[in-house]
Each structure stands twice: as C-alpha cells, then as structure tokens.
Design a protein that fits this description.
Strand content: under 5%
Distance between the termini: 68 Å
Structural class: mainly alpha
Radius of gyration: 32 Å
C-alpha cells in the first residue's frame, strides 16, 4: 500500500523510474484519495501478477498526475495577476476623431469603399483559413461602415430593416459613434426602435393595407431620408465610409 503522498525512488534507473520521477508532491483530497487507496489495497490483498501490478501502478500514476494538474491549475488561478485577462481583451487604439472629418474631406468615397471592402474580404479569408480567427476592431469597422451605408442609406430601408437582428443596430451605432458621427448613431438607435415596432404583435395584427401600416411605412421613409441627410450633409467629410477610411489611415500611421 502507498502510505506517503510523495513518491520518490532511490533505486537505480529502471524503465518505470521516469514515470515515478515525474510525479510531484501533491495533496490528495476526497474521492481521489479513496480511489488511490482502493487500488493499492487491492494490490496488497490479492497478490496480483507482475503485469497486473504494473497496470494498477500505472492507473495510480494517472490518478496522481490528474490531481497534480488540477492542483497546479488551481494554484495558477489563485496567483493570476490579471495578465492573462488583459491579454484576452482587445483594446482598440485611441484615435482623435475630431480630425477625422478634415482627413475624410479629401478621400474619394468610391476608393474608400474599395479599400474597406478589401480589408473585410481579407478578414473573411482569414476566418476561412482558420475558423478560430476573430476579426479585429479595424476589420469590423470596415464591414460596419459599408453595411450602414448600404442598409440604411441606399434607398431600400423598408426591405432591409426587418432583416437586421437587434444586436446589429447596437453594433452599427457603436461604430458610427467611434467614427465621430454621433447624429447617425442616434438615428441608428431610432431604426432599432422602429424595427422592434415592425415585429410587434400589435402591428402584426393590423391589416397590411390599413392605417397603422401606412403610418409605419411613412416613419421608415422619414427615417431613411434623415439618415441619408446625416451621412451626406458634410460632403465627403461626413460620409461614414470616408470617415472609416480616414480612421484606418490614422491607425496605420
């Protein structure tokens, strides 16, 4: 029977000595100690053959190694200084958005869309090559800027509004805010409320050609006009795609 929690060997090196030396000093608790005791008691009482004894010893060593790993893991968690957490959290670089409009004024919107599209396509290729890859903040901003203009300012809001999940509106609004377009961010939150209204049981119960749906369609049309105006009021300096392109340029500088 093994009576000591520390396994050591002073005998000359044998084929199994490497396994024994790998076992560290550990603390056995609860069911793990009972498992070891049961195995070792069986060895002593039944007088097993050499092969059976080696097999049972191997089982004991596996249990001890599992306990040792668990103890090291718990110790590591207890001593975590926050480095592992910090490494897992992406902190986007600071960009002074007060200068983005001035930089965006000189950017051609079509060229900006092309560069942003390439950025997002590269991110998609990375995901296809490695499903565990998560697009970074710059790649997500490139995608969002294009999507916002396409969905909300492209003349098809009534068709596209119902297809957006609730979390998409919050993400779009956050991107607009990051790019220094707070007015557009507020309108995106209005779009979220309008989408929720369109999905509501109250509106769904009304006839599609009735007054309630007619008012709802007018609200969508009004919101789309305001979003288009907010996105183009400052010319290229106010376009979300040019702001996003200027943002990328500042980060790369």
């Amino acid at each position: 029977m093994i009576k000591m929690l520390h396994i050591a060997t002073t005998a000359p090196e044998a084929p199994s000595s490497g396994l024994l030396n790998a076992v560290e000093t550990i603390t056995l608790q609860g069911g793990d100690l009972a498992s070891v005791t049961a195995l070792t008691d069986g060895m002593g009482e039944s007088g097993p053959s050499i092969l059976v004894a080696l097999g049972m010893l191997a089982a004991v060593l596996l249990i001890l190694r599992r306990i040792s790993r668990k103890a090291r893991s718990q110790k590591s968690m207890a001593q975590d200084t926050g480095v592992s957490f910090a490494a897992s959290v992406e902190i986007p670089p600071y960009v002074d958005t007060s200068h983005l409009a001035a930089a965006a004024a000189d950017i051609d919107p079509d060229e900006a869309v092309s560069r942003l599209s390439n950025t997002w396509m590269d991110a998609r290729k990375k995901v296809e090559a490695n499903p565990l890859y998560s697009p970074n903040s710059n790649e997500r901003i490139a995608r969002d800027a294009i999507e916002i203009e396409r969905i909300f300012c492209g003349g098809h809001l009534a068709k596209n509004l119902a297809k957006q999940p609730p979390e998409a509106f919050d993400r779009f609004a956050s991107t607009a805010q990051t790019l220094g377009a707070p007015k557009l961010a507020g309108l995106l939150q209005e779009a979220k409320a309008l989408a929720m209204k369109g999905h509501s049981a109250e509106l769904q119960s009304q006839p599609r050609k009735g007054e309630a749906w007619g008012m709802f369609r007018r609200e969508i049309s009004d919101l789309e006009a305001r979003m288009h105006a907010a996105n183009t009021a400052g010319g290229n300096a106010g376009r979300l795609v040019t702001l996003a392109d200027a943002y990328m340029t500042q980060i790369a500088a």
